[in-house]
Amino acid sequence: MRTDIFARLDREPEPPKIEVPRMTRTRLALFGGTSAFYLAIVVAVLLSTWLVTLDWKIMLFRPYQQWPEIHGFLDYYVVLGQRGPTAVMVAAWLGWRSWRQHTLRPLLCLGAALLLLNVSVGAVKLGLGRLGPHYATQVGSAELFAGGDIFPSGHTANAVVTWGILAYLATTPRARRYLSALSAVVALGVGLTTVYLGTHWLSDVLLGWAAGLLVLLALPWCEPVLAVAESWILALRDRLLDRLRDRRRLVPSLPVASGGPRPGFFPQRPTGAEEPVRETVGVARGRAPATRG
Known about the structure:
The chain is an all-alpha fold. The chain has ten helices and no strands. The protein has one domain. The protein has helices at 4-7, 25-46, 50-61, 63-66, 71-77, 83-101, 105-128, 154-168, 173-197, 202-250.
């Protein structure tokens, strides 16, 4: 007898009614506050304020030397912020969700979020060119415009977006609360782990948290575009399937008699027929071939 858990894994008979998040006043306020926090971090690093001093104090403290017993575990934990492995895991889950709910929206939301993340974070990384703690050259310097690419932290921003998209796509308030808390804990841990390992400054992590949150808060603006994209993809799929069905109808099917030979490209010799006589080329019938003396 099947349990309710396995029954819920089946594909739903019809697409469920899903309430798409809208850009509410609360979300707009959060977006504005996070944007202000983002700009404040960038300005603080550009002006080499107390935040840069704090970065150096933590770096010189060298947490990975203070608590070496957790180094091995955190080397694996930080993978939860790497774009490749996390994107594959989350895409597999959302792919099943798309199949079960007859909609491409989960996968399209993930793709849009990762695209926004790569563009926004990548542009700031390349524009500011900050070096990481292991490559710092001058104590107390912000290490900007030196050819680096660690500000903001990509691991941290990716952890916020990749795991936060699960909460964004949750279909019930209870699931959304639990997944929001889980994604926040994972993203917080990934960011602090990069500081512990010495691969990022603390300000990198703060900006990474803000960058990832901005992407999630901006997703409702992308929903109309995603709806149009889904309709276009499904319409294209239907046209391709119709063409495939039409081609199958045009292929003639030759009837095969029971026990008889199957039709082929070459005719088959009837059973019991005599072997045709083959003559030597260039020799006339009834004459023996001439021999040379």
